[in-house]
Amino acid sequence: MHVPDGFLDLPTSLATAAVAASAVALSLRGARRELDDRAAPLAGLVATFVFAAQMINFPVAAGTSGHLIGGALAAVLVGPWTATLCLTVVLLVQGLLFADGGLSALGTNITLMGVVGVWTGYAVFRLALAVLPRRIGSVPLAAGIGGFASVPMAALTFAGLFMVGGTAPLDAGSLVAAMASVHTLIGVGEGVLTALVVGSVVAVRPDLVHGARRIRAASIQAAAPAPSSGHRA
Questions:
Q1: pLDDT digits 0-9 by tens, 74-120
Q2: Which residue, 4, 155, 199, 136, is CA-closest to 66?
Q3: Cα(27)–Cα(171) distance, rounded to whole angstroms?
Q4: Strands, E assignment, 4-68
Q5: How many C-beta atoms lie closer than 10 Å to residue 214's C-beta?
Q6: Class of domain 10-219
């Protein structure tokens, strides 16, 4: 999913850089509402986990490999605004120290993974959670569905960008078909890993999971004893 230097022309790269910069600026403000004394350390752990997970590739088909994007995972654990910041830090370090994605394509990679991946995954997670039973056990499944959806959406967004400003003579239909098919398979792995990790955290500390807060609060409220309405004689 990492886009290298020179894959998109200068105007397209500048446009995605502007989108990425705007998203980061908004996220810096939005993250203030998501982070507290308990969530801040988790955000650092999430960024570290996503960084490590993106360095591990798994085979898909015909010699193609994929890796965890981590957008939906981060969004469910620490919130979408904070997740965008986590992915931005990860992609910046990868570009500067490991040449994983070019510096001129940094804005494109942040847009694809830190914006599209994060927000698509979180939106699908919220929709799935609204349909599934309202219990804490639904959170990992909804997170997995969000993780699955985030990968092909990011891939199709890249295909759209390439059709606008790609530097290689590729057929648009073939590009879309190839990106959709391969990244749907990668999305399956993303969904499974996302569900497993979120499920592990929910099982131990559900109070730390951003995406579980509403359900947990509703469960606590439902379990609370009703106030007595009796009158003293």
A1: 999 999 999 999 999 999 998 888 777 778 899 999 999 999 999 99
A2: 155
A3: 36
A4: 58-61, 64-66
A5: 13
A6: mainly alpha
What is the C-alpha to C-alpha distance for residues 10 and 226, in angstroms, rounded to an integer? 63
Q: Is 55 helix (H, G, I), strand (E, B) or coil?
A: coil
φ, ψ for residue 166 (rounded to 5)? Answer: -70, 150
Phi and psi dihedrals of 43, rounded to 5? -60, -40
| Full-model pTM | 0.88
∠ CA 101-103-109 to the nearest 5 degrees? 50
| C-alpha–C-alpha distance, residues 233 and 230, integer Å | 10
- Contact between 198 and 49 under an 8 Å Cβ cutoff? The reply is no
Residue pointed to by tokens 């648009």: 172
Task: Say what angle helices 118-131 and 71-78 make with each other, to 10 degrees.
Answer: 60
Task: Give the span between the Cα atoms of 38 and 43, in whole angstroms.
Answer: 9
pLDDT tens profile 139-195: 999 999 999 999 999 999 998 998 998 887 877 788 788 888 888 988 998 999 999
